[in-house]
Specification:
By secondary structure, the protein is α+β, with helices and mostly antiparallel strands. Helices cover 33% and strands 24% of the residues. The chain starts with a strand and ends in a 15-residue tail after the last helix.
């Protein structure tokens, strides 16, 4: 994660310097849809990603265009700097999470790691790989991401399988016997 930097700001600093550009839409059918801030038809409620009270960790990934839909599905919010228009990530679910501080911090790091792994499939994080190998069917991931539609899990599974040579990146060779 060499191109990842973060800074901790107060809620007031975030609100003064950034606009929230990510939102979650709840359709009239009750389904959750994820948006890049553009209202869609058939929408019941549009909820802007919530900037938590107190200190907020803002994550910048240099030379990367943030995938807003993917970030929101994972549980991250997207902010845009009012002056530079640079987009950054923050843990939007922290505003509603309860429990010991360490658990909340761990879920924030887990969400960020998931996003980073999907954004950079060739990135190798041995601790994350081990965590996924130890959790059957990605149960630990399902507990920290917002989306329950399995798209993030399927994409993560695809990325991880490719890294292990179990995906479509393996070339088979015909063996000739004398």
């Amino acid at each position: 994660m060499n191109n990842l930097n973060y800074v901790t700001l107060t809620q007031d600093e975030v609100e003064n310097e950034f606009d929230v550009i990510s939102s979650v839409e709840i359709k009239t059918s009750g389904e959750i849809d994820y948006s890049d801030g553009k209202p869609k038809a058939n929408v019941k409620n549009i909820h802007e990603s919530i900037v938590p009270e107190g200190e907020v960790n803002i994550y910048r990934i240099s030379n990367h265009e943030i995938d807003i839909e993917k970030a929101v599905k994972i549980g991250l919010g997207v902010l845009e700097n009012k002056q530079t228009k640079e987009r950054v990530l923050f843990n939007s679910l922290r505003a509603v999470e309860t429990g010991p501080t360490k658990i909340v911090q761990d879920t924030e790091i887990m969400r960020l790691t998931i996003y980073y792994q999907l954004a950079f499939p060739d990135y190798d994080d041995p601790a994350f790989n081990q965590f996924l190998d130890e959790t059957a069917n990605y149960e630990g991931i399902n507990n920290v991401i917002l989306s329950k539609d399995n798209a993030i899990i399927k994409e993560l599974d695809f990325v991880m399988n490719r890294k292990k040579g179990l995906g479509d990146n393996v070339i088979s060779f015909k063996v000739y016997k004398k």
